[in-house]
Design goal:
Blueprint (H helix, E strand, L loop, with lengths): L1 H12 L4 E10 L9 E5 L4 E3 L7 H14 L3 E6 L12 E5 L7 E9 L4 E5 L3 H12 L3 E5 L13 E5 L6 H11 L3 E4 L3 H13 L4 H4 L2 E2 L11 H18 L14 E2 L6 E2 L6 E5 L2 E5 L2 H9 L11
Length: 306
């Protein structure tokens, strides 16, 4: 458990999403124990223990979905005919074929990172925006241009340059190199085009400049500085809710395979076994399925998706 807590702290420090899986009930002879916990990262790595090869692929798959939709879920893992009509409402049944005939209830809770907003500049609008973002529970930094140095933003950060024509070009160039999830410039459309054109002439990569929103914020027409702060925050909330602020491409999910004997979905080479047959490698949830296939492979090949 200490290792799980350490991993949670490190992921939170890096601003990365993860899911916490907890075993809340078990039916023997499952290898897991009630209260066992594991962390699943966004790229599908599992740290901790929630069960063996039968449960792990299903938990990883459901944890990644929980991170995507932000919804916790309670899983009931077992054989398809094990529970009948006794499953409570709101519980997701995940059929697994496991020779141990055990069963698990696993609660999966997504933990999404708190947005990190970096505001560069000092004006009444920036102070209002910082106060509004802090009221939402966002981690907010209000920096002067000299303090906005390398490392102050990450690919998960949201950066707003509001320097009112002073050092706009230098701050956008510096911020673009950090590749934040969002980069906006508080300026008129004409001023924004001039800044981006100047940086293009300086050789700033076009893919970095294409990500700059200038002007930043929703277009509300003529507004006060308080309303401008609301318009910028509203744009950030809208983009975040739509999933557009992912901080880069989503990692590819771990490869999956179908056990040709029991039909269970497994993650190759993660607790399972494999066997080459006629030039094709097949993967199994355990030694029993591998042994059955090895004895009579032709009896099971029809179960393998083509």
């Amino acid at each position: 458990m200490n290792g799980v807590l350490d991993e949670m702290s490190e992921l939170a420090r890096r601003g990365q999403a993860y899911a916490l899986a907890t075993v809340v009930w078990r039916q023997g002879p499952s290898s897991s124990q009630q209260g066992s916990r594991a962390i699943i990262t966004a790229d599908g790595d599992l740290h901790g223990w929630i069960g063996g090869a039968c449960a792990e692929p299903a938990v990883i798959r459901e944890a990644r979905q929980a991170m995507a939709d932000g919804q916790a879920r309670l899983l009931l893992l077992g054989a398809p005919d094990q529970f009948g009509t006794t499953v409570p409402d709101g519980m997701t049944v995940v059929p697994i074929s496991c020779q141990s005939e055990g069963a698990l209830e696993v609660y999966i809770e997504p933990v999404l990172p708190t947005p990190h907003l970096v505001i560069v500049g000092s004006s009444p609008m920036t102070h209002t925006l910082a106060a509004l973002a802090s009221a939402l529970g966002w981690r907010t930094e209000l920096l002067s241009p000299p303090d906005f140095t390398e490392g102050r933003a990450t690919p998960q950060s949201l950066v707003l340059v509001a320097t009112q024509g002073h050092d706009d070009e230098a701050m956008i160039e510096r911020a673009a190199a950090m590749r934040p999830a969002y980069l906006g410039l508080v300026a008129s459309r004409r001023r924004g085009e001039a800044v981006l054109g100047y940086l293009a002439e300086r050789g700033v990569p076009q893919d970095q400049l294409d990500r700059v929103r200038a002007p930043a914020g929703l277009d509300l027409g003529k507004t006060s500085h308080e309303e401008m702060a609301v318009a910028i925050l509203a744009e950030l909330v809208q983009l975040r809710a739509s999933g557009a602020l992912s901080g880069g491409p989503r990692p590819e999910p771990p490869a999956e395979a179908i056990d040709p004997v029991c039909g269970m979905t497994i993650i190759p080479n993660r607790g399972g076994l494999s066997l080459a047959h006629n030039g094709t490698t097949y993967h199994f949830c355990g030694a029993g399925c591998r042994r059955a296939f090895e004895t009579n492979p032709d009896a099971y090949l029809e179960a393998v998706p083509r």
